[in-house]
Amino acid sequence: MKLLQYFYLFIFIFPFALTAQIKGTVEATGAYSFNLDTPGINFRNYYFLSEKLHLGIEYTHFFDNTEHFLDEKVVTSADVFDLNSNYFVELTPHFLFYTVLGLDYSREKEEIQLMDENEIQRDDAFGYNVGGGFEVPFNHHWAVLAEYTHTFSDLKDNIFFVGLVYEWEIKGKKHHQHNAD
User: Fold this and answer.
1) How does pLDDT run across 115-162, given as a tens digit for each residue?
2) Residues 49, 27: Cα–Cα separation, whole Å
3) CA 25: distance to chain centroid?
4) Average pLDDT in the 80-96 region?
5) What are the helix and strand counts (H, E) for the chain?
6) What is the pLDDT of residue 179?
7) Share of the chain above pLDDT 90, in %
8) Residues 42, 31, 122, CA angle at the centre, nearest 5°?
9) How confident is the model at residue 6, as a pLDDT?
């Protein structure tokens, strides 16, 4: 788990060392897992490697899904961590299409309750994501998005996202200019 913390620190700090001007997005979405048949929440932070190519990390938590089978009760939930890249294509000035390609780490928890006994099963899997989405800006900083992603792994899934995007920019200090006298 410590390695994962260092990874996130690297992803957040590294772009600041590369350039004096940094742009990115902070995003919050609702998510729906078709495999788990449950909604969730998703938080994202993307950095602009260029105007069209963005790299970011995502965290999604899928809420408990409870199913009953005779005397058995099964409660399933999941946490998903992704490192994704997006490539944007402007279809119109106010309608963008983007691709999704990235790495995935998923952790599912299944709690099985039968009479007075509880059993917890945990499954972890690494995989990759492929998908696409649309983004509709409604001013200089804000946009809405809709996205579909398929995860290829032992815990494969199809996920639909709808959410809000805030674009931010940090302008660095200008370096000293040398004037020829």
Assistant:
1) 888 999 999 999 999 999 999 999 999 999 999 999 999 999 999 999
2) 17
3) 12
4) 96
5) 1, 8
6) 47
7) 74
8) 80
9) 59
- Give the H/E segment covering residue 14: helix 2-18
Distance CA 15, CA 47 (A): 7
* CA distance from start to end of the chain: 58
Of the CA atoms within 13 Å of residue 147, those in its CB half-sphere come to: 29
- Between the CA of residue 76 and those of 46, 52, 53, what are the distances in Å? 29, 37, 35
| Residue for token pair 């998510």 | 31
Place of tokens 């059993």: 119
Answer yes or no: are the C-beta atoms of 164 and 134 closer than 8 Å: no
For 17, residues 6+ apart whose C-beta sits below 8 A from its C-beta are none
Tokens of 180: 């020829």
Take residue 14 and report the two structure tokens written for it.
């590294």
Cβ-based neighbours of 128, under 8 Å, separated by 6 or more: 101, 102, 103, 104, 151, 152, 153
Q: What's residue 177's pLDDT? A: 47
| CB distance 141 to 165 below 8 Å | no
